[in-house]
Amino acid sequence: MDQPDYAALRSSIPFSYHVSATYLALLDATRIPIKAMFLEPEAGVELYRRGRPLIRELYGEKIGLPAPITAPVSYGHVNTLGAELIFPDDGEVNLETGASTLAEGIAMLERPVDFARSGMFPFYRDYFQILRRAFPDEAVGFGFKSEGPMTTGYLLRRDGFFFDPYDNPEETKKFLALIVRSVVGYIQCVNQVIYDKPATGKLPSFGIADDVGAMFNPDLWDEFVLPYYNLEFDAFTDRQRTMHIEDLRPAHLPFLEKLRLVNYDPSVSPRLTPKIISENTRVPFQWRLCNFQYPAMSANDVKNWVFRAAADGASSVVSYVCQGMYNAESAVKVHAFIEAAEATRKALDQGAGRADIARFIA
């Protein structure tokens, strides 16, 4: 893959915005228990059938609605390796530690695995088919997913994973290479078994989500992080690479160009701002206004947030209607977000510069 032309890439991308609801907002609107959504396919059908009209009624037509998807389990791949899932009554799914030692983790990954018949994959495959029958005209998603290599390492090893590079660097590299091989195999299985697509072959773009990479010191990235991101990217695309990784520090940002990313999603990253990102990498990025930020903001604050993010270099701004936002006050503020984003896009499309957008701040 050729290195993107970072001298021109960010300026060549038109400013954009995205606002949509999530399953968390549907849970609020319908009052369906979260545990029921995870373990009862009929509750999943009801969630989308009843929840989406309620969100549309409150928020109007400018809000995107989520397509039906099986209950989101980010630990699907690790579960097929043998880590047991835990479903609390009122929270997100969790899992048991898979490997208490690095040697156990390596042995776990070296064992042959039939992903489609392991763990809860068969249950969620059936869940997927139930959703497809309920929504035959929609593209149903499969939420029983994998994580990136560093997060997978943490899920298998927990806190011990952060000591492994120091205590046993060569075995850690073997562990990470096996993780990537397993993740690639799992994604290929999902493509083939769930989506009836070829198991192998290059895609026009591919993204990795891997928040735990941010927990590794930048001094370790060249040796213990970048090689394994590159392995996974190379398995799926020789073109566009994108990444979601939360809580990076400024010192991590130069590595994004080494990864040849064309888009970076920092999501919840309290140590960063659009200005800091712009000053430390040329990779185009989006900036997110989170649900937990809205209560302390007025509608005007929300507009100023959009203008500041755009003025400081964000290629796009995003916001999701999540838990705690099924109310009229939040709807007003989300529409202020949309109004400001549309004004920003119009001004930039008509030739305004980023500094001009800063003048919109009131």
Automatic annotation (TrEMBL):
Molecular function GO labels: uroporphyrinogen decarboxylase activity
InterPro entries attached to this UniProt entry: UROD/MetE-like_sf, Uroporphyrinogen_deCOase
Gene Ontology process terms (BP): porphyrin-containing compound biosynthetic process
Domain Uroporphyrinogen decarboxylase (URO-D): 79-275
Coiled coil: none
Stated name of the protein: Uroporphyrinogen decarboxylase (URO-D) domain-containing protein
